Amino acid sequence: MHIERTLKTHAEALADKSKLDQEVLERDEISKRKAKIYREVTEWSVLPTLDKRLLQASVACMGLSLYVFNLASCFESFELTDTVSCHLKGHGHKFVLLPGWVGLGLFAVSGAFFQIFTKRAGSMTAAREKTNPPVEELERLPSTSS
Question: Taking the domains of the chain in order of start, what are their residue ranges?
C-alpha cells in the first residue's frame, strides 16, 4: 500500500534517470563493457582450440552422465520409512550403486571442465580489457603526437 502510494506520488522523480547515483551508472557501464568483451572472447569462432575442447568435453561428460542415470540402476531402492542402519547396514554410501558413482563422477568432471573454461574466459576478458581501455580512459591519456 505504502509502496504503491509512493510510486504514484513520486513517479516523475523515480522515472528521471538523471538523478540516479553517478557511481551506480558508472558501475553499470563497466558491467556492460565487461559483458560485451566476455561475449566477444567467448564467441565460438574466436575461441582457442583448448577452450573449445574443454566445452566439448564438458558437454560430452554431462550427456554421458545423463545416459548413465537414465539407463542404469544407480541407486539402491530405499523407502522414506527405511533406515540407513537397517536397510543399508549402517553404510549410507551404499545407497549409491556403481553406475551411480560413475554418473556422479562424470557429472563432477563435466563441472570441472566448465569451471576451467570459465576461469580461462575470465582471464581472456581481463586481458582484453587491459589491451583495449574504454574510450574515456584513452581521452585522459596524454597525447603523444606533436
Answer: 51-130
